Amino acid sequence: MTWSFFASLTLQAAAPPPTLDLPVACRLPERCVIQKLVDHAPGPERQDARCGMLTTDGHKGTDIRLRRYSDMAGPPVPVLAAAAGRVARVRDGVADADVRQTGPEAVGERQAGNAVVIEHPGGWETQYSHLRQGSVLVRPGQVVEAGAPVGAVGMSGLAEFPHLHFELRRAGGQAIDPFTGTAADERVACGAPGRPLWRDAAGSRQWVRPNEIVAVGFADRADAVEAARRATLPLPLAPDPAALVGWADVAGLIDGTVERLELIGPEGRPVVTRERRLERGSLSWFSFAGRPRPAGGWPAGEYRLRYLLNLNGDTRTAEAAVRIGGPTTP
Description:
This protein has about 325 residues and is mainly beta. It is built from 4 helices and 17 strands. This is Murein DD-endopeptidase MepM/ murein hydrolase activator NlpD.
């Protein structure tokens, strides 16, 4: 496609939206998870297109996150152009960091962090935000095809976890929900299929799941749980830790879900069991339970964490294992 042809298309203000490819080289929901959707509730309320709470007030895009903070230490996850177009603007050089640790003042006006904006025929544009520092691969004016790498998933700007914030806008800057084809400030009927703009329209309906268990893991004391969750490298446990704590990170918790967390010892016996009904849903739910080291130390062997969410028979489970134990030193 020559640029002169592209330019002529941009003059068609009534052109339909582009058909979108998934903007990350990452399988959903196996390796990556959709953490936030577009907010369709006017005013201070929040509501995603499924009448759920998987959004924040005024959120205008789709957040696709890596499951663990430690995934940032692995090979970069490419961010891809969702449709053919011309690169309008780029920014790189913003450090990857958790804004809850650095504070929003460290971000300033660079809330999108490292980012790329691509113009598409008919006055449409897409934006790719919070990219990994040093990962931007394109320059302004460059013509890209759908699927072309533009950067990598990161945690720059106003970011609390490693993710891509993907946004689709029409001429004038109005945000459009790619899952429904409707404006961000337009109410939609609960559960209505809408007209997804994704190329894999049928498959996209499986990308977003309620009660998605993002990650599970271990810590060796209660006040280290949050550090273990946010670590960019897995935190090792002491050989005979002062405590054994299992934790779980959940996206899109639904009202009335039954949660069960079990720690199981080397002989298959429960070390910790907690079950409860969670009456209030949450965009992001974090849970943990554990027990202190028993007298004489932990019996040596493999300890398993089993985490389960059950909503009216629809069950999600995740497991993890760690080897610890042995007698304490006098």
